[in-house]
Fold this sequence. Notes:
Layout: E1 2-7, H1 11-25, E2 29-33, H2 44-49, E3 53-57, E4 65-69, E5 74-78, E6 90-95, E7 98-104, H3 114-136, E8 140-145, H4 158-161, H5 169-180, E9 184-185, E10 199-200, E11 212-213, E12 216-220, H6 222-227, E13 228-233, E14 249-253
Parallel strand pairs: 1-2, 7-8
Antiparallel strand pairs: 1-14, 2-4, 3-4, 5-6, 6-7, 8-12, 9-12, 10-11, 13-14
Helix pairs in contact: 3-5
The structure holds one DNA strand.
Amino acid sequence: MKLATWNVNSLKVRLPHVLAWLAQHQPDVFCLQETKTEDKDFPAAALEAAGYRALFYGQKTYNGVALLSRAELNERSDGIAGYADEQKRVIAATLGDVRVICAYVPNGQALDSDKYRYKLEWLHAFHVWLRSELARWPKLAVLGDYNIAPEDRDVHDPKQWEGQVLVSPAERDAFRELLHLGFRDALRMFDPVEPNFTWWDYRAAAFRRNLGLRIDHILLSPALAQACAACYVDVAPRKLERPSDHTPVVAEFS
DNA sequence: ATGGCGCGCGCAGCGCGA
């Protein structure tokens, strides 16, 4: 089994990249964030022609998440149970006995902004919900754009980023609290030598200079972590014409 | 040097992302 996640920054623009990536990597479930696509406009037919069915939870201009899969997904749920949120950031479903949650955590904008307070509140609700999800689904994977670089080694220049959103202590505490629920950070299970950034700013030739952050993650429940054989970042799509500023993360299971 | 780029919206230039 192969699970993957990608913040596509507009599915409309990135559809050719998504189709090419599916053909090459053939994930069992592909989690997409920032589709920025209303459900009535979702490119379901093009994906179906590529062998993938889709569950989508989108809105105009902002946010939007989707699950693509080759086999049928069951027990779909939208959003965080018990947390009313206008913004469409979470979709979940089950493949066999594996529960897959696709999440787009708020960015936060700046530490003194309402958006940052929303991010922390959102992360608290996410934490509470994931605790109950873990109790319900022993095999649980939570994939997505967390908008948090968990440690300094996930940041190209920790000094430059100090005091900014994505690296602030409160956000990192919230991420660590998710791990304390019992999740493993799949990429860190394999302790790669390279930085394994997943996002590079469009500006200032940040990708060419490798000025990136690791903010897209795959968290695995203990039962799934035990079965995880590999986890890696695929930087190839960042080199394409009109790339997303994020790149896919993949987990493979025995 | 606090911008830079790219997206949606909608037709100019702004809000937003990270």
